[in-house]
Amino acid sequence: MFPSTVAHQIDPQFSIKIDRKSKLQKHRAAMEDDHRPWANLHPDLLSLVSQARGLSLEDFTSRRAVCSPWRSTMVPATPLLIYSAATHGSATPSSSVCFKAAFCLPTQRSLEVRDCLDPVITKDGIIVGSGHGWLAIYLEGAPPSSRRLMLMNPISAMRIRLPELMDEEGWIVKKMVFAPNPRMEDFTAVAIYGEVYKWRLAYARSGDKNWTKLPETHDPEYMNTITDLV
Fold it and tell me: What is the DSSP string of 36-101?
């Protein structure tokens, strides 16, 4: 009733798809073979890579991101101590030729900081807070209207401009704390500002045009107790 043999016809388009898929798999395998030597470098060589002289903070973090073996071999760069110092022959660290660096505590070595910090960490820029890989920077200006606050990530160079905190002449920002993982559209910051024996508190959130200042009190005992934020 049925023929003893059945002829199966293969769609030519289907055959082409199989051939393309096979070539794609071979191409991916070849690419993996090309990149595999990076992951198979001897730990001693990786140590030399991570200890290269003149390595910047950006270079160090980029090399850790090459592959999983590199990331497991090279310790994280954080925590860091950001500092500025005068180059050889300069009189003071506040001179115009100062350089910026970060001292990596896990590796006990200095790493150059990218140029994004040059315009802000100067004799007019003060780091008033840090956390979660970000810096809170207060830029002092002669008139109060020129004083600025910002959050900056020294690795990604991202900046978040905060509202101006203008007040009386001579008042400064003593310290600022902020919520983890700040973004331009989502941040919360609290600052201690004022002057000695007259410290006040203010906070700002994303979308605010001005800082919200907590009501001032004339109780000297209360004003003297505002010494820190955590």
Answer: HHHHT--HHHHHHHHT-TT-BHHHHHHHHTS-HHHHHHSPP--SEEEEEEPPTT-S-TTSTT-EEE
| 183 DSSP assignment | B
Is 112 in contact with 118 (CB distance < 8 Å)? no
pTM for the full model? Answer: 0.61
Separation between Cα atoms, residue 55 and residue 112, nearest integer Å = 6
Could you report the per-residue pLDDT of 92-148, keeping only the tens digit for each?
A: 444 444 456 777 778 777 777 766 555 555 556 778 888 888 889 887 764 555 567
Phi, psi of 40 (to 5 degrees): -100, 10
Place of tokens 């794609």: 24
Residue 67 CA from chain centroid, whole number: 20
- Crossing angle of the two packed helices 43-50 and 57-64, in degrees rounded to 10: 160
Question: How many residues does the structure list for the chain?
Answer: 230
Query: How many beta carbons lie within 10 A of that of residue 45, not counting itself?
Result: 10
CA distance 70 to 68: 5
